[in-house]
Design goal:
This protein has 6 helices and 10 strands; from the N terminus they run βββαβαββαααβαβββ. It is α/β, with parallel strands linked by helices. The strands form 3 sheets. The protein has a 6-stranded mixed sheet.
């Protein structure tokens, strides 16, 4: 396996809700403001293209502890590597990049704080843009060259705990608009989900 890191930058789309986000999961979103961003992704891929099974598992990295971690990679990496998957971790949320308040308290391990020389050029405009950043990361995995010589036939979206509640909103409201991922693994969700503007928690679906 080969491990590589890439910086991903562009303009991210925010979203606004259309109607109510009820418990039936029939949520509607529409484009809102945009903002420039620069984040990073980590790619773990088979070194031998013949070992690649065609599926890239793209994980929304968890920031509950105030820094990026990949719990689904930790839980599944033996099977992923044994079966020939590629794995991509996405720094989708602001706390993991910029720092600030997290569910566990003040962040001390955010990328820009942990290594300013390496990550000082990153810029995350806020979690309202996290959904589109995650979509763009998937598009780059499918259509870009971040997998080296590999070409992904399928993209599987992964999210655990706090990432899983964001993934719930993504599945309900964002995926119907963008259709980037082929399947979802929503893992250990603790109830509720943020609105499409990431500013509140909607009813559980």
């Amino acid at each position: 396996y080969v491990v590589e890191e890439y910086f991903l930058k562009g303009t991210a789309q925010g979203y606004r809700k259309v109607g109510e986000a009820g418990p039936d999961a029939k949520w509607q979103a529409a484009p809102a403001e945009t903002s420039p961003y620069a984040t990073r992704i980590v790619v773990v891929r088979p070194a031998d293209p013949k070992k690649f099974n065609g599926t890239a598992a793209v994980e929304w990295l968890n920031v509950t502890g105030g820094l990026d971690i990949g719990p689904d990679w930790s839980f599944t990496h033996r099977e992923l590597m044994r079966s020939g998957y590629a794995w991509v971790g996405v720094s989708a949320q602001k706390v993991g990049v910029e720092g600030g308040a997290s569910m566990a308290g003040p962040s001390t391990g955010a990328l820009k704080k942990a290594n300013p020389a390496r990550y000082g050029t990153l810029n995350h405009p806020g979690d309202a843009y996290a959904f589109d950043i995650y979509s763009q990361a998937g598009q780059v995995v499918r259509n870009g060259n971040v997998l080296g010589p590999l070409k992904a036939k399928r993209l599987l979206a992964l999210g655990e705990s706090q990432s899983a509640i964001f993934m719930t909103t993504y599945v309900n409201a964002i995926d119907p608009l963008v259709k980037v991922y082929d399947g979802f693994f929503v893992h250990s969700r603790f109830g509720g989900a943020p609105g499409v503007d990431a500013a509140r928690v909607a009813p559980q679906a």
